[in-house]
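As noted in the main text, all predictions were made from sequence alone. Below is one such record, for MYND-type domain-containing protein.
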Amino acid sequence: MRQTYDDQADPGDHSEQWETTAHFREVKAAVTRPLRSEASARAIRYATEAETAFGKEHYREAADLYCDAFCEFTLVNPEEKWHAKRWDIFCHYGNIFTRQLIKPNTDDMTTLERVKCNKKEAKLLRIHAAETRAFLLGHYYKDPYDAADEYKEALELSQRITQGERDQQVLSCMSLSNEQEGLTTLLDKVRMRFVGDVVDENIRRIQAALLEIEQDDEWNVQDKYRTKKKSSSSDRRARDGSSSSLSSSNHMPSKKTSSTQKSNGGGSSRGSLHDFSDRSAAYSDHVSESFAPMPTTKNYTAAATANMKPTKKQPRPKLNPQDLPQLSRKQMDRLLSPPGKECDACGKTLEQLRMHQLFQCSKCQLASYCSEKCQQRQWIQHDGYCRKEHVIKKGDFMQIHSVTSKPTWNGQICKVLGPAPRGRFQVVRVTLPDTPLDAADSISMSATKLRRLRPLK
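Prediction:
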């Protein structure tokens, strides 16, 4: 069970540890800061109930309670907008979905959308809402285009964050897996962090996610638009849980929903951001004028290619038999064996040399030698292959990994035939001499899916 948020908790025998360093005193001051309203006290109580539900694996109930707590915190005095617990609660709410504990419903997508669009909200929370929503669109709804748009919106928000916001401090997410770990473990994991550092981490994750979408082997832009029509606005509203009244007005209904679902431990699903319980109805009246209307995400790529005429798919070029490489099992074993077991020049092993480890090439980290003499003797052959990891040339032997469109190719050895469009490489699978040649075993592959292997002698 994870640590609960209890402002009245007594540190007991560990009280001396709180006072040992200024860092721990700072954390304690942030966690136990006096609350100025009844709404704040309710928020902490809901967060505590959410922690209990999470420990019992009632993830749907925990998500609803976390959202309740976040809504109550929004009602506090504006100067408490940067309360450390508020960010922590919102992180726990989003992590339930990004850790794939439960599938988000349309109400969760609406919650994240409205937090992202609220201009009075802290930009840190808006960035996190956009990033979480982008992950859910790509993972659950299989919509990489809208996911990329959400990631780009998060990057735009991160560029508009002010220095004053970057200098704010928030409480890092606590993730204790066992209550028995005690207060000492809690002190090791709880720390205050500057908002600027958290935003910089988000930017790195977002950029990596965008690169993954662009280089995904299952994603071909032209084929996508030839086979799938652009989703209509009604489909998007149905997915996000929004209606035409929401797009034309900022009013947010406070009517309690009557639909319930049982999922992952018996929690009931709510209707929308402010409909799922009576205690959050006040939040609707408080922020009905704060939230901007939910805009429909514009797909610029679709608009640019709307008038393009579909082209006939070009057949894959056939390869000559001599272009299909074949290696012996001994050569394959050498390619796949990790460096450092034997000298690449004289071939002696560590046992024969009576050495604990060999010297490695400092540039490519793939060649091993027992002495400088062997390294100089082997340099003429190694010179054509020695380069940094991200440099790929024609004729290199690589190992394929993390390919989802062709999972049978994962772990296979391939040879680079040359560059391909869109920054990719044309590769062909390496076969054994007794394997029949197949001219169709050629494919364009992203550089991120290729791992360099040791050079052949």
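Residues 321-452 form a domain with the SH3 type barrels. fold (CATH 2.30.30.30). The mean pLDDT is 66. These features were considered when defining construct boundaries for the mutagenesis experiments described in Section 2.9.
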